[in-house]
């Protein structure tokens, strides 16, 4: 008798599962979903890469790029907590299903410091190598003095 009740209830009730991805999944306001970034605020410090427990983030400060693998991410939110620029956040819906794996690449804005470093390199290439040339004799002098001092120390 009990079994008949269960059979009849299941026959006339809706299935407990949904036909995802053809039917959208249920979301709720504080759901941890797809990780996104405000690339213009990122300073490429790599803290998120270092602290990610599954190592799915890669940051390249030289190229000013940020990338992550949405299929490896476990949505723990640690990267969001440690980011000093508050540029990481999550959508309240899951990453869309895909038949192929991919990495999400974002091109950011180069940091002023990196730009300054590149400028100095350009300056040297443009002919300001005399700065280096001027510095060399000083280094040689300094080495000579150090050697002399060492000799004196050895004699004593
Ligand atoms: S996203 Fe945040 S933690 Fe990651 S490199 Fe950019 S500033 Fe640093
Ligand atoms: S949410 Fe967690 S697993 Fe996903 S990228 Fe951030 S630190 Fe890594």
Descriptive overview:
- The protein has a domain at 29-94 and 103-108: Alpha-Beta Plaits (2-Layer Sandwich), CATH 3.30.70.3270.
- The chain is built from five helices and five strands; from the N terminus they run αβαββαββαα.
- It has helices at 2-12, 47-51, 78-82, 112-126, 130-155, and strands at residues 35-37, 57-60, 65-68, 88-90, 104-107.
- The strands form two sheets. The protein has a three-stranded antiparallel β-sheet with strand order 2-3-5. It has a two-stranded antiparallel sheet with strand order 1-4.
- Bound molecules: iron/sulfur cluster (2 copies).
- The site of one iron/sulfur cluster has 15 residues, from α2.
- The site of one iron/sulfur cluster has 14 residues, from α3.
Give the topology.
Elements: H1 2-12, E1 35-37, H2 47-51, E2 57-60, E3 65-68, H3 78-82, E4 88-90, E5 104-107, H4 112-126, H5 130-155
Antiparallel strand pairs: 1-4, 2-3, 3-5
Bound molecules: iron/sulfur cluster (SF4) (2 copies).
Quickly list its features.
alpha+beta, Alpha-Beta Plaits, elongated, three-stranded antiparallel sheet, 156 residues, binds iron/sulfur cluster, 5 helices
Short synopsis of the structure:
The protein is an alpha+beta fold and 156 residues long. It is built from five helices and five strands, in the order H-E-H-E-E-H-E-E-H-H. The protein has a domain at 29-94 and 103-108: Alpha-Beta Plaits (2-Layer Sandwich).
